[in-house]
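dumping this here before i forget
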Amino acid sequence: MNATSGLIIDLRGNTGGNFNLFIGKLVNAPVSCLSIKTRSGTTDFIIKPEDDPYSGPVVVLIDVMSVSAAELFPACLQSIGRAVVIGERSPGTVLGTKTDVLPNGAFFVYPNRQYILPDGTVLEEHGVVPDIEISLDRRLLLERIDSQLDAAISYLEGEIRK
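structure:
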């Protein structure tokens, strides 16, 4: 990735997954980006760098349908100043859950952890507030103009010129 001058990660409409699979490719030193609170206590989540991390500017696109890990990923990068988040505020559906099988074979899914940013913000029900808030305009989309993507490109062009 280091051959590219800027990186756009589009998480719009993403329903989540494992948010820390790629994040280590974007930091060059261990850093705490959030805390995980459970009944037994609070633990810092440390991002560990991977080999040859990308050092250029990063933009993450989000929208109202970016949920769960698709909220944790931009929240982490935003909280450590590693990425600029562009788009619409995410919904704040980021509680960690545990699943148990009941005696009748049914699954019982329940929240068992909470994610907290370094400034004390609990992501559940708060969501990720973009650094640059831009809504999609349906009329423009019909003309194949993505205002959020265009804003990301413009931002990166400005960063690259610096």
